[in-house]
Task: structure prediction
Amino acid sequence: MENKLKDIEIENRSLTIRFQNLMTNHSELMTYNNELNTSHSKLMTDFNKLNNSYNELMTNHSKVMTTYNELNTNYSKFMINYNEVSTNYTALDDKVKKFAKDVRDGIISLHPSGWNYTSFRKSVYHFSTDSTNWADANITCASISCCSLVIVDDSAEQEFIKNYDKEKRWIGLQKDGAGNDFQWVDGTSLATAFWASDEPNNENTEFCVTKGAEFDQDKWNNDMCNAFHRRICEFKPECYVRKKLETDD
Result:
């Protein structure tokens, strides 16, 4: 009898331990289940957000495609108009260049009566026979549209004006007397110069420039602006024609 009781007690303890283990496992499973439920809830929330974002993206994509198609249509229209304008511009540009060439060649005259002139590259030059101070020379040349005292761009143009004659003649270069550098009448800075030896000198009083120096008639000399010299006017036919067309329009 005692042995039976002992066996029952042993079995009871064993069952108790097993029950406790089962309860522990159950508790752990419940905790894990709760964690899974929480994760599932978060995943569903994220899924819903992603789904909403996807729907928004699809809506935006549809709008973008509509805009793209409209832009593509407008671009096609623009290219048609651009090609027409480009063709018309090329034809007009050819006419302008031909007209300007006729002016340079003397076939068409746009110059004031009494001008003696000669052509070089794309410009027409007037070498005056009368003498004035620099300011009056500048005003006289500029009184004609697209005309000014000559601006010497490079050695080829310098060679052209020096070969015309050995006269001292005003060119479109001066300084304002405030210590500034020499500038052309169109406001551009002097880049390439053809000064005679020891020129420019007396820069506190001699602010204007001639082609033809005392001892080197092929180069430049700075002189007092109230001195009297002949002038060189440079007229640009293409500029004149373009301005005329703009005015007529």
Q: What stands out?
A: The chain is about 55% helix and 15% strand. Residues 7 and 109 are 139 Å apart (CA to CA).
